[in-house]
Design a protein that fits this description.
Helix content: over 70%
CATH architecture: Up-down Bundle
Number of strands: 0
Low-confidence stretches: 33-38
Radius of gyration: 20 Å
Number of helices: 5
CATH topology: Four Helix Bundle (Hemerythrin (Met), subunit A)
Number of domains: 1
Mean pLDDT: 81
CATH class: Mainly Alpha
Shape: elongated
Largest sheet: none
Distance between the termini: 43 Å
Order of helices and strands: HHHHH
Structural class: mainly alpha
Length: 148
């Protein structure tokens, strides 16, 4: 009786964790579509700040660099998620293999978040000082909307 209950609890916990990881990955893909290189933050920046040609050129280069970096990290995230799925398929309970695969997913997701923030601040540095306040407002507004 106790073993069966413990097993059900373990499986339920594992399924819940897997659903959480999958939801996080879906969120990453929805917010970082590879088909559209410009994020909504990028578009809002163009609407809020009158960029000159030099700023546009600088930001476009930074955007291209970030797109390549983001794709590399997203590839690692997909691979890590695949490892997690394989680990669970081999042994559908919390195990050292599932733990390690979960940590790989977490590392890749954290790397993506960090790279995105570095990119945001690199973009800001590419603006004229008089345009940075408007950029900051757009950034803060976007983050606030995302947290609601």
């Amino acid at each position: 009786m106790m073993k069966s209950r413990t097993f059900r609890l373990s499986v339920s916990t594992l399924v819940g964790a897997l659903v959480g990881v999958l939801m996080a990955i879906v969120g990453v893909y929805v917010t970082h579509s590879t088909e559209e290189p410009h994020t909504s933050l990028h578009e809002m920046l163009h609407d809020a700040v009158p960029l000159d040609s030099n700023e546009r050129e600088i930001l476009e280069l930074k955007e291209e660099e970030f797109t390549a970096r983001r794709r590399e990290i997203e590839s690692r995230l997909r691979a890590a998620n695949g490892k997690l799925a394989e680990s669970i398929a081999k042994n559908p309970q919390w195990s050292p293999e599932v733990e390690e695969a979960t940590r790989e997913v977490e590392r890749a997701a954290a790397d993506l978040q960090r790279a995105t923030l570095v990119h945001v601040f690199e973009m800001r540095a590419g603006l004229k000082p008089e345009h940075r306040a408007a950029y900051d407002r757009v950034l803060v507004d976007a983050l606030k909307r995302g947290s609601q």
